[in-house]
Amino acid sequence: MKLLVQRGEEGFPEPPEDIVEAAKVAPDHWLNVVDQHWKPEDGQAPPMWARLGRWRSDEHGEIVEWEHNPEYRPSPERLGWPKPHGEVDAAVQRAATGYGPEIAVVEALAGTEVAVCVDEEGRPARSEAPNGTTAVAVFTPGAELPEGQEMPAHEVMHVDRLLDQLADGEEVLFLSSTAPVAHLVDPAELRDMGERKQPATQGAAEGGAAR
User: Which residue has the higher pLDDT, 198 or 52?
Assistant: First the structure.
């Protein structure tokens, strides 16, 4: 892909209307385009991986050049993925695209109910993850699969109950029902996060009862 394309050259993209209007009041400028999923904190400048590229306006306020950013990482929205089904699915989408930390998946999954894929005998089904790890696949309960895909046999249970059934070295593989991604989760991290979340949950419940 050619990184710098001038107006009139092959591959020059049509600038969106908001950029055209911005160029009129900012002649002879570079106008950055930032992925809509990236949210700044306290005036933080967008990192290079969140920038699609930039347009250049000439001295007359006309867009004359587009520069593609090879470091850009598309967000779930830019990839066209459907809206995530629940908090865990959203965390997995963000982690897969680099727009969220992996620990957020653990935090969202800990202490929740999951749909666990089961074998013919109704036990958690073991499979080999892409990295060779033995894992049990889970997904968000009530998730709707794309048309033409069949819902796998599963049982809805609390994640702690699943963890009690895992052998040493086995992990949890969360399958996104809305995007072509999955995320391996270490059971030890899940247990630790669940224990840390429990006091906060109990405190909130007690506070509500006191009122």
Answer: 52
Two structure tokens written together for 171: 């992990």
| CA 77 – CA 114 distance, rounded (Å) | 25
Beta strands 30-34 and 4-6 are unpaired
Q: Is the pLDDT of residue 41 over 70?
A: yes
Burial pattern 157-181, b for ≥16 Cβ within 10 A else e, equals: bebeebbeebeeebbbbbbbbbbeb
Residues 6+ apart with CB under 8 A from 141: 113, 114, 115, 156
Q: What is the CA radius of gyration of the chain?
A: 23
Residue 137: CB atoms within 10 A of its CB come to: 21
130: left (phi over 0), alpha (psi -120 to 50) or beta: alpha
- Cα 30 to Cα 116: distance, rounded to the nearest angstrom: 50
pLDDT of 211 over the 90 cut: no
